[in-house]
Structures are given as structure tokens and as C-alpha cells.
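User: Can you help me understand a structure? I only have the sequence.
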Amino acid sequence: MSPAIAAFDCDGTLIKGDATRCCLLLLQGPFGLMRLMPKLLPHLVAWQLKRCSTGRMKEILLNVVLQATPRNHRQRVLEEKLPIQLRSQLRPEALKRLQWHRQQGDRCMIITASPEPFIRPLAEFLKIELIGTCCQDPLEVSPNQPFTLLSANCKGPEKLKRLEFALGEMPSPEMLEAYGDSSGDRELLQASGRPHYRSFSAEPRAYRQSRSWLQRFLPWLALLLLGLGVQTWFSLPSETKSQLVAACTRLLAWLPVIYALLTLSYLGRYCRWRVLLHSVQIGDWNWADALGWFQGFALTATPGKLGELSRVEQLHVELGYPRLPLTHVFVAERLCDGAAVLIWLGVITPAMLAQLLPPVEPSWWWLLIIAGLILISFSLRRQRKLRSGWQTLRKAWDKHRPRGAMARACLPALVLSLIFWAVEGLILWLLVMILSPTSISPLQGIGIYLLSGTAGLISNSPGGIGVNEAATTLLLQDAGIDVLVALPIAILRRVLTIWTITAAAGLSQLIQGPFTRR
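Assistant: Let's start by predicting it. Here is the structure, written out as C-alpha cells:
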């Protein structure tokens, strides 16, 4: 009797992440890939519009990057760096399952959409057969000899064809045990009598459709939000546009500093994310985790934080993180954000607010507070909808509030929140220092940033568009800055922060597609 076949997908199954993406990053690095983006962007758009196949998109990506990389560096990456990197990304649970199949006497093989030259050193290290996308030798790529795929992209039905060709016949379902993690493994998993979809347990787990409508349209919705920001620009008066153009000219030299602060802020956000997840022993620091987390910001400007909530479903699907702890982390993050903002406002803004409000005796403040509480209480009693909403909110809080280890992790998470909210506030202070003849203190910059952000959040408009800018402008005017300077600063601050992040997160999803759709 012939041995059973154990077929393992590579990217996302045997290893964490994608071998092709890993190779491209080793060849050019993130900034090198950004430099090549003008050449790649038309093809990415055509691929998104279904005018270009995933195989052809992969061929174009590899050709552009390989030709932009010197041959000696290519050789060092392909022969030394990439094999070491892929070995470090092997999943321990996958190796245990592979060893179990060997003990059973099964015939083990890798079936992957990644180019065979990228995976061959790993297959030799594991002493396992390899079926991948056949291609030209990457070391021989030159302007006169562009990179080409020599076979169809080894995904979907092509995996079954290649398996049948390698074995001489298609094994029966009882003789095939398959492991995969994406829609590109669907046919292989469905042909197996013992499929293991994102699982290495002894019990089979059938393939199920994982890509929701929200994930499919997330990049496009993000670009739509970015379009709202562009529309705001065209609706501005010509005088304001002239002020913005002049401000941008002076700003160019400071952009590296501003984006360094923005990067530091979002690095702090990611550290908080990992601190909270580590408290419940979910995931680890790696590129796939960081990318999935960052892509949640593609819709962070939507009302109701739809983009951030979509991160729960996205990471559940892409990385296998359980939904309930992810929801708890989402709630913990919002609590830390609220607490950090309140602490900063409590420290910075009393004096700012005192300048805006008329002088009132202390006894009157107590009367106003008591009257406000009575009005709120009366309104809650009279309006059933509000009372019902309060009860729903209380039940949700009881279900998702941080407990145990996560509650303890909220303290360092709060410290990180205090730091990165202050860092983002410094961007506004820096813009005022660069563009305005009237200066403000760093603490004033943080206070104005937080107050205007709170106003935008309360408005529930997409990204607080209009409200945030107006609040920033008014507060800057109160600090002595002319309106013709304050408005461009308010708009530029938004473009350089939330809209930059929205665009980058949406673009990362568009770029990621050729790798994840195997």
C-alpha cells in the first residue's frame, strides 16, 4: 500500500508570514519598496480592478524589485539571508505535526504559490518534497532578461493539478491530509479526507470562507475617506489655499521630524496593543501581527470606530486570534485613551478654559454642577430610549471590561497612552512654531490638540471632518494666532496625521493583496 500524502502550504501555514514578501523586504527594505511604488502603482490598480491576474501581478512585482537590486546583493539574500529568515519563522506546531507524519511513514511535501527558488532551501532543511510556482532563476534577471513565471501561479485548482502531475495520479481523499490557511488552499483542502484549515490538531477542520465583505472593501472605503479630505481642500477659499501652499513650502524641511514624531506615536500604540494581548497570551511581536494591527487604521476615521472594530474580525480571520479577547483589548484601549485624555486635560486645560469662560464665584460652580446632574437624571428617567441604551451599555461593560491579567496590564498601557497622545500633540505645537509668528507652549499645543480631537469625536462625523479643524482654529485664535495662519495649521495637522495614516493603511492593504491571495 502506497504511503499517505501530507501536503503542507508554506506561507501562513508552515511559516508565519509570506516568503515572497519577506524576500522583497530583504532585497529592498520598506523604503526601497516605497521608492519603487510609482512603477508598481498602475499595475496594482489594474490588479484590484481584475484587469491583471494575481500570478501576473506577482511576476511584475518580482521583476521590478529584482532588476532594482544588484546581483551580488540578490545572491546574498537568496542564498544566505532568506533561508535563515524563513527558518526563524517556522511554526513550532507545524514542525511537530510534520514530525508526526514522518513517524507514520507518510510522504510529506510543500505545495506553495511562492516561487520555488525562495522555498527550496527551506524544503531541503526540512527534508521535504517541494511543489511551487516555477520561475526563471532570480539571479539571472537583467534588463535584457526580465523575470518570468514558467508555470501558472500554484494556487487554487493549480495545486491539485501540480500534485497529480508529481504523483502520477490524484490520491484518494482518504490518502490525502492537507494543511492550509487561505482561499488559495481551498481546493486542496476540499480534496482531502482530513483537511486542517488553520489547524495542526489531530482532528480535521474543513475550509470555510473567511474574507468578509468588510475586508474586501476596506481599502476602497479608506480611499473614499481620503477623498473627503481632498474635497475639503478644493472647497477652501483661494486665500486660504494660498496660505496653505506658502506654509507647505516652509514645512518641507521639517517633514522628517514631524513624521518621526508620528511614527513614534504609532509605535507607542502598537506597544500598547502588544502589552494588552501579551497579558492574555495571544500572538507575538511579528510583521504579520503589526501589519494586521496597522491596517485597522484604514477606517479609523469612520463614525463609531468601524475600522478599529473591524480589526477584531480581521485579526481573528488572518491570524486566528480569538474574537472575545480581542474585543476585550479593544475596550481596554478605549479606556486607556479616555483616561489619558482626561488626565492631560485635567493637567493642562483648566487655565485655558478659564480664559474662555466668564469669571464665576466658586459657590456658583457647585450650583451649576448640581443643576446639571439633576437635568441629566431627569432626562434619563423621562426617555426610555436613553435608559435602554444605558442598560445595553452596562451589559456590554460587564461582558467586556478588563479583568485579571488584562486589568493589570492597563496600567502600563495607560502610561504608553499618556506618552503617545502627548507626542501627537507636539506635532501641532511644532506646526505653530514653524508657520506662525506667534508661538505657543508645548503644553498648550497638547491641550489644543486634545480639546479639538474631543470635539471631533463628539461630532461623530467621519474623522471629525470640519469640527476638528474648526475647534483647532478657534483655540489657536484664542492663543493669539491670526485666523489666516490658524486655519492652514489646523488643516495641515490633519493631513499630516490622521489622513496620512488612513492613506498608508489603505495602501498597505492594496499592496498586501498579491501576497495574501495565494
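Now, to help you interpret it: The chain is about 70% helix and 5% strand. The two ends are 33 Å apart (CA to CA). Let me know which part you'd like to focus on.
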